[in-house]
Design a protein that fits this description.
PspAB-like; two-stranded antiparallel sheet; 5 helices; 7-stranded antiparallel beta sheet; alpha+beta
């Protein structure tokens, strides 16, 4: 923090590091070997859709970009009860690198077109053989990850979340403020 920021009490917001999404394939290997969690092949980006043709065109361009490849994944755009839009990508569970590339493309395109403030998070779900699920959530505005593990209607598996946090602490930037570990009830793939 500089002298002027200290005097005025203002700080610059943390900048998103979208390249952090490319840390997920390595984290996936760690989660599989340490805890038995494997990728589900689903990933999504959550954002608040802006009104107007400019945003609609950008969203269509993003979908066209992802589905225009030879090995194109399935893409769905849905809304939730809170007014957020989820752009969900379905790939083979083994193609975590391709999934992260798709999520990165969505985020960077929205950011480049001036819709960065609309981005909330990106989510990559994992599951184990017993059916437990946990999502690795990247908070756009905090430039950090946290685990979210729903265990039932409006219930979380806090022990699994802490286990995932501790397992990945050396590999990815983990959100230290637990009050920012938001519940993503009804998120695609969870």
């Amino acid at each position: 923090m500089g002298l002027w920021q200290a005097i005025t009490g203002r700080t610059r917001p943390k900048q998103a590091d979208l390249d952090a999404l490319f840390l997920i394939p390595s984290a996936a290997i760690t989660l599989q070997t340490a805890i038995g969690l494997t990728p589900t092949g689903v990933g999504s980006v959550c954002y608040r859709a802006a009104a107007g043709a400019g945003f609609a065109d950008t969203q269509q361009d993003v979908v066209a970009l992802i589905t225009g490849a030879v090995d194109a994944p399935e893409v769905a755009v849905t809304g939730d009860e809170f007014g957020f839009t989820w752009l969900t990508v379905h790939r083979e569970a083994s193609d975590v690198g391709g999934l992260c590339t798709d999520l990165h493309a969505v985020n960077t395109t929205l950011e480049a077109e001036g819709f960065g403030p609309s981005l909330l998070c990106s989510l990559v779900p994992f599951a184990d053989s017993s059916g437990r699920r946990v999502g690795l959530v990247y908070l756009y505005k905090q430039a950090s990850f946290y685990p979210f593990a729903p265990s039932g209607p409006q219930q979380r598996d806090n022990l699994l979340e802490i286990q995932v946090r501790d397992t990945l602490a050396a590999e990815i930037p983990i959100e230290q403020d637990l009050s920012r570990w938001l519940a993503l009830w009804g998120a695609p793939g969870l």
